[in-house]
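Let's practice the habit of predicting before peeking. Look at the sequence and jot down your guess about where helices and strands might fall. Then scroll down.
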Amino acid sequence: MVDLIAAPDPHQLLPPVLACLPTAFASNLPPPALLDLVSPILRQRLQLITSTYTSSSENWLRLLCWDQEKGKRLKDVVEGGTYEPHPSSGEIEIGDVGSTKYKRLDQDTLRAQIVLPEWNLIAVYLWCAGSEGGGGWKLAELLPWDSDLERDPSWSHSIAAANDNSRDHTVSEAIRDPDAVEQPTVGEDDDDDYWAQYDKTPGRTPAQNSSPTPNGSAADRRTSHSDREYYAQYCKVQPVMDSHDLSEVPNQIGSSSVQGDILESIMRQQLGKKEEQGPMQRETQGMQTGVAENMPVNHPQPSPPLRATSGAVARLEEGAGQQSASEIGIRQHISTTMKSLYRLASSAGLEREEFNCIIQRELETNSILDD
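Done guessing? Here is the structure:
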């Protein structure tokens, strides 16, 4: 608790506040003198809200109350009062003042209530420890007179009594009956009943309660059997990434897709060729072979009908086509792999000469393994 707090002096605190109240009907902004007399939180309230005012008819008196209805009543009370300074002193006389009451909300918050019967007002002050000069009382709220607030038993007639009441209230809250603290948990029985309903769900939990639905019948077993047959069909599905289809006949001979000159060269390798050929025949054959190699293959061409009638010729054509396609694929794969390896080596910072040495060393190793 905070000690050495002086009691508020109404004759010093209230006249400057009362002198600022009539200015609310002349300007929609509070005077700077009033901002120095109020608490920090009320000062922020006045500054922030009045900065949004766009009409001169808006009044800031209602902002001195945190309750909207009391704020409207405060405006009417101030409008009906007379705020004239005394001719000799130049200050507003507050007249008789009721007894000052105190209320401590927590360790750092102490409030004082001052009743002004002649003005029909109740001023609530807050002790601010960080004020200039060490500490002081600042206006926290200005209310219209309220009999219920004046007779509120939570307010004490001295600061010491307010401290004692706050301490007693804290202790009573700490040692309050545990049953009262746990009272909101009485509804747990309802939650238990809710979750217990899941035990009645058929086939979902191992509860011993009998299921309200009939037991499984032969129709259910037939349905289960049909489901197994349905999912068993997935075993017969050809995988998407599997290029080898078992449904295809491997020895089936299809139409030839190779050129006639390739077939002729393969037949010469299989059946043998005469070792001696005339110069003219070899020259003619070389010209035909060169022309055939330079001709681009745009699309597959069927073999002549006379050759398709021979089974041996068809098998040779098929073998030549498969061999040609395999060789082309292997060469492309090797070329692509070498390019990828070179790019990888370049990205890693290897020089071309070092890369060539690595490739040459691997080739030599492969030749040793072949031997």
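How did you do? The chain has 14 helices and four strands.
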